[in-house]
Amino acid sequence: MAGWNFNSSGAPTFGGIQTAKNGNNPVGAVWLLLSGENYHWRLIHGYDTEGGNYVGYKDPDGGG
User: Fold this and answer.
1) Are residues 17 and 8 in contact, defined by beta-carbon separation less than 8 angstroms?
2) Higher pLDDT residue, 49 or 9?
3) What is the rounded distance in angstroms from the CA atom of residue 25 to the CA atom of residue 60?
């Protein structure tokens, strides 16, 4: 797909998330469920560094 870039990491860092969000790039995160064979995607929509390093995410299934 022309114009699409992606970066994949098995262990993303908070700094990597900050860099992506500061560059106005979407960040998707996958959570492995129980057996490791099932997974669920969420969209990280922001972060906060006050009092720690936190990310905000939206669950496309309505949670989060």
Assistant:
1) no
2) 49
3) 18
